[in-house]
Design a protein that fits this description.
Layout lengths: L5 H15 L2 E13 L4 E13 L12 H11 L17 E5 L6 H9 L5 E4 L2 H5 L3 H5 L3 E5 H4 L2 H11 L9 H23 L13
Parallel strand pairs: 3-5, 4-5
Antiparallel strand pairs: 1-2
Helix pairs in contact: 1-2, 2-3, 7-8
Length: about 210
């Protein structure tokens, strides 16, 4: 195990505070429509509040941001699943990295905190053989970003969500199909949490 420098300990203290402190963030969307017959403008305004944790470490190159990220994983408390959550709960940290850093991250985790259990997903083959139990027992899941950009990933997502697969040759179809996948994925997770493992497709829209 490698000890952190004093300045890194300072940053780690800030990161721990960001993880525990709750920040309320308001987002607002405004839309308007012109009614030429009445020479009037109608405006609709919607405000939504969300709770956020976390932050951005923007220290200089070479400061040791990777070591800090590993340290926050090792020092974070175990979170309990939300009540009636339909999702499979895990305390593992998801780490998305470019393909060229797939060797660096596991090596750094082993160097700074070898007790952390790491799952590595380099290819779709790795993802296809990944089990829920391995993710639940992991402390870190390192995934190549190239996997999440592949057609194989989008096809598997659509198959599990029982939706049309997003096609990247059409921006409009991709956006719509991807959103449908996320909606149906949540519904599928809820059915599975209730013991329904059937693969019946969602009801077609009329």
């Amino acid at each position: 195990v490698v000890a952190l420098r004093p300045e890194q300990l300072r940053s780690l203290t800030w990161m721990q505070a960001q993880e525990t402190d709750v920040e309320w963030f308001d987002t607002e969307e405004v839309d308007e429509a012109q009614c030429t017959a009445l020479h009037a403008t109608a405006e609709a305004r919607v405000t939504r509040g969300d709770i956020f944790r976390g932050g951005i470490i923007a220290d200089q190159v070479g400061f040791g941001k990777t070591a800090l990220s590993i340290a926050i994983m090792a020092s974070s408390e175990i979170w309990s699943p939300p009540p009636q959550s339909p999702l499979v709960w895990t305390n593992a940290t998801l780490i998305l990295v470019p393909a060229q850093l797939m060797k660096q991250w596991p090596a750094e985790i082993s160097k700074f905190c070898p007790r952390l259990k790491t799952v590595i997903v380099r290819t779709m083959a790795d993802l296809n053989t990944l089990t829920i139990e391995r993710v639940q027992n992991a402390d870190a899941v390192v995934v190549s970003m190239s996997v999440l950009r592949s057609d194989g990933y989008f096809n598997r997502l659509a198959d599990f969500a029982q939706s049309a697969a997003p096609q990247r040759d059409s921006d409009r179809q991709f956006t719509y199909a991807y959103q449908e996948c996320l909606i149906n994925l949540d519904a599928r997770a809820r059915r599975i949490s209730n013991g329904d493992f059937t693969a019946s497709p969602p009801q077609a829209k009329t």
